[in-house]
C-alpha cells in the first residue's frame, strides 16, 4: 500500500501542554487507519492537525513535518481552504446546518464557486448515494436537515464532506453519539468509501477499530506507542502497553 | 415505622407554608408591574380618548389646542427611524461580528468590550451633549434631522452591539467547525453559517433598540430639536421634532386641553412601541420555526 500521509517528528503544544510528542506515522492511501487510545491521549489532536483545524485554537504551536502526497501542509505555499477541501472531516456530534438537506450538501460546492443548478443537483445526488442516504431522503430534499434521525444526520455530514470531492476523510469518533444500528450502517459505509477515499478515524471503541480498520495506531499520553496492521496489533501486539490497553487493563 | 411516615412532619409542614408564602409574594410582585401598567394605560386613554381623531395625525402643532395635531412629530420620528435604522444596523452588527469572530482574544478586546457594555448604560442625556458637541457644533449640522438621527444612532449602537454579540455567540461552535472543515474562509463562515442562525436574535435586538430610540426625549432636547415645527422636514438639514418632544411640550402647557392632547399623543407613541415589540416577537417566532 502506498503512503499518502507522512508524519515525522511532529510535536504539538497547546500553550504549555505538550499534546503530541515526537509522533511519526505513515498512513496508507485508500485504506482505513484507526487511532485508538484513552481520552486525552492526543489521537483527536493528531487528526485535527491533518486539516489544520488546530490552527484556530490560540496558543497552538507545531513542530515537525506533516506531508500529504509529498506536500508539507504547514508550508507557506499551502492554502488552508484548499487543504480542507481535499481533507474532509466528520465530527463526533452530527452537525448539519439548520438548512434543508439539499442546501447542506450544496454548502461546500457553493463555497468553492459552483452555482450551476444542474451541476449542484448532480453533486447532491451522487454525494447522498455515496453516503448511502439517497434512498431515504430523495423525496424530501427540501426538508430541514434537523428533521432526520441522528444516524441519518451523521451520514448527511459524511455526504456533505464528500460533496467537495476530498481525497481524505477524517472521522473524529463519528459514531460515538449514535445508536448501534446507525453505527453499523456507518461502519458498512466506510468499507465502501475506502475504495475511493483514504480514511483516518479516531475511535474510543476498540472493537470498532478491529472491525473496520486496516491499520491501527495506539496512542498514549501524546505518543504513538504502536502502529501496525489491525490484525497484528490486536492479536499479537509487540508493546506491553498496547496489550494492556486492548485487553482492558486500563483506559 | 412505615415507609411513608416521617418523623419530621412538622418540618415538612413548615417548608410547605414557606413555599406557599413565597408563591404569593412572587404573584404579588408580578401584579404590581401589570397593575401599574394597566392603570397608566386606562388613565391616559380616558384623558386622551376625545382627541384620538384624524386631526391628531393631520394637523400641525398650534397655539390653539382645538386645532393642534402631531403630524410633524409623527413624520419626524418616522424620518429619524428611517435614517437611524440602517446606519445603526450596519455599524452595530459590523462591530459585533468583528468582536465575536475576528478580534483577537486579548486585553485590548476585553477593554473595548467593557467600554461598550458601559456605554449601553450611560444616561441618554450624555449622548445629547456628545451630539451637541460633535454633530451640531463641530460638524455644523445645526439642529437638523441628520444631527438628531446621528445622535440617536450613537445612543442605540452599544445596545445593538451587545445584543448582536449575544446572538452571534449563541451559534454553536460546531456549525463554524462544519463550515471551516469544508474549506470556507472566515467571511464565508460568518455569512453562511453564523449569521443565518443569529439573525432572528440580531433583528430582535435591533428592533428593541429602535423602539427605545423612538421614545427618547432627553438627547434631542439637548441638541435642540424644536418643539414647534409647523412643516415637514424637506431634507436632512431641516429642523424637526419627534413624538416624545411634542408630548413633553404639550404637557408643559397650563391649559387642560393640551393635557388631553398630550394623553392622546402618549397613546399613539405607546401604540407604535407595542407594534414594534410585537414585530420583534413575530420575527423571532418566524425564524425559529423555519429552523
TrEMBL record, chain A:
SMART domains named in the record: AAA
Classification via InterPro entries: AAA+_ATPase, ABC_transporter-like_ATP-bd, ABC_transporter-like_CS, P-loop_NTPase, PstB-like
Top-level taxon of the source organism: Bacteria
Keyword field: ATP-binding, Nucleotide-binding, Transport
Domain ABC transporter residues, every copy: 5-246
The keyword Transport appears for this protein: yes
Molecular function GO terms recorded: ATP binding
Pfam families linked to this entry: ABC_tran
Protein name, as recorded: Phosphate import ATP-binding protein PstB 3
Organism, as annotated: Paenibacillus cisolokensis
From TrEMBL, chain B:
Keyword terms: Cell membrane, Membrane, Transmembrane, Transmembrane helix, Transport
SUPFAM superfamilies according to UniProt: MetI-like
Membrane topology type: Multi-pass membrane protein
Sequence intervals crossing the membrane: 20-46, 78-99, 111-139, 145-168, 189-210, 261-283
First-listed, main subcellular location of the protein, grouped into a coarse class: membrane
CDD domains attached to this UniProt entry: TM_PBP2
Pfam families in the record: BPD_transp_1
Domain ABC transmembrane type-1: start-end pairs: 74-279
Cell compartments where the protein resides: Cell membrane
Top-level lineage group: Bacteria
Family in the record: Belongs to the binding-protein-dependent transport system permease family. CysTW subfamily.
NCBIfam families xrefs: 3a0107s02c (TIGR00974)
Protein name (Swiss-Prot/TrEMBL): Phosphate transport system permease protein PstA
Organism name: Paenibacillus cisolokensis
Amino acid at each position: 500500500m502506498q503512503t499518502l500521509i507522512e508524519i515525522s517528528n511532529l510535536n504539538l503544544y497547546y500553550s504549555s501542554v505538550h499534546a503530541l510528542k515526537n509522533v511519526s506515522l505513515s498512513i496508507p492511501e485508500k485504506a482505513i487507519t484507526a487511532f485508538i487510545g484513552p481520552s486525552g491521549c492526543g489521537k483527536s489532536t493528531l487528526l485535527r492537525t491533518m486539516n489544520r483545524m488546530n490552527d484556530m485554537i490560540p496558543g497552538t504551536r507545531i513542530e515537525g513535518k506533516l506531508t500529504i502526497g509529498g506536500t508539507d501542509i504547514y508550508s507557506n505555499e499551502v492554502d488552508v481552504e484548499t487543504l480542507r477541501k481535499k481533507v474532509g472531516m466528520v465530527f463526533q456530534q452530527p452537525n448539519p446546518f439548520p438548512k434543508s438537506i439539499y442546501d447542506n450538501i450544496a454548502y461546500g460546492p457553493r463555497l468553492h464557486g459552483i452555482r450551476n443548478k444542474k451541476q449542484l443537483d448532480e453533486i447532491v445526488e451522487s454525494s447522498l448515494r455515496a453516503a448511502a442516504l439517497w434512498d431515504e431522503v430523495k423525496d424530501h430534499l427540501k426538508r430541514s436537515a434537523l428533521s432526520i434521525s441522528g444516524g441519518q444526520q451523521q451520514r448527511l455530514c459524511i455526504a456533505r464532506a464528500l460533496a467537495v470531492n476530498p481525497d481524505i476523510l477524517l472521522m473524529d469518533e463519528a459514531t460515538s453519539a449514535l445508536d448501534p444500528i446507525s453505527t453499523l450502517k456507518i461502519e458498512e459505509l466506510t468499507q465502501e468509501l475506502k475504495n475511493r477515499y483514504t480514511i483516518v478515524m479516531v475511535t474510543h471503541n476498540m472493537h470498532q477499530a478491529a472491525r473496520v480498520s486496516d491499520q491501527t495506531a495506539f496512542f498514549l499520553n501524546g505518543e504513538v506507542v504502536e502502529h501496525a496492521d489491525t490484525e497484528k496489533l490486536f492479536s499479537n501486539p509487540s508493546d506491553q502497553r498496547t496489550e494492556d490497553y486492548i485487553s482492558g487493563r486500563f483506559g | 415505622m412505615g415507609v411513608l411516615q416521617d418523623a419530621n412532619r412538622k418540618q415538612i409542614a413548615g417548608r410547605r407554608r414557606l413555599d406557599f408564602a413565597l408563591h404569593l409574594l412572587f404573584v404579588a410582585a408580578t401584579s404590581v408591574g401589570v397593575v401599574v401598567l394597566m392603570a397608566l394605560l386606562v388613565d391616559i386613554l380616558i384623558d386622551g380618548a376625545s382627541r384620538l381623531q384624524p386631526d391628531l395625525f393631520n394637523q400641525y402643532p398650534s397655539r390653539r389646542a382645538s386645532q393642534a395635531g402631531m403630524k410633524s412629530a409623527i413624520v419626524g420620528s418616522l424620518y429619524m427611524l428611517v435614517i437611524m435604522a440602517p446606519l445603526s444596523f450596519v455599524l452595530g452588527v459590523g462591530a459585533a461580528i468583528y468582536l465575536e469572530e475576528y478580534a483577537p482574544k486579548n486585553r485590548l478586546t476585553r477593554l473595548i468590550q467593557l467600554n461598550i457594555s458601559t456605554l449601553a448604560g450611560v444616561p441618554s442625556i450624555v449622548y445629547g451633549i456628545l451630539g451637541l458637541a460633535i454633530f451640531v457644533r463641530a460638524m455644523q449640522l445645526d439642529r437638523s434631522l441628520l444631527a438628531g438621527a446621528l445622535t440617536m444612532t450613537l445612543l442605540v449602537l452599544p445596545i445593538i452591539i451587545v445584543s448582536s454579540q449575544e446572538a452571534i455567540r449563541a451559534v454553536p461552535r460546531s456549525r463554524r467547525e462544519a463550515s471551516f472543515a469544508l474549506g470556507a474562509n472566515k467571511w464565508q463562515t460568518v455569512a453562511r453559517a453564523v449569521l443565518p442562525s443569529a439573525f432572528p436574535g440580531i433583528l430582535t435586538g435591533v428592533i428593541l433598540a429602535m423602539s427605545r430610540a423612538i421614545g427618547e426625549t432627553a438627547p434631542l432636547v439637548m441638541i435642540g430639536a424644536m418643539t414647534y415645527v409647523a412643516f415637514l422636514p424637506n431634507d436632512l438639514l431641516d429642523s424637526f421634532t419627534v413624538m416624545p418632544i411634542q408630548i413633553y411640550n404639550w404637557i408643559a402647557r397650563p391649559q387642560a386641553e393640551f393635557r388631553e392632547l398630550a394623553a392622546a399623543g402618549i397613546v399613539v407613541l405607546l401604540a407604535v412601541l407595542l407594534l414594534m415589540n410585537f414585530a420583534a416577537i413575530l420575527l423571532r417566532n418566524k425564524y425559529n420555526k423555519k429552523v
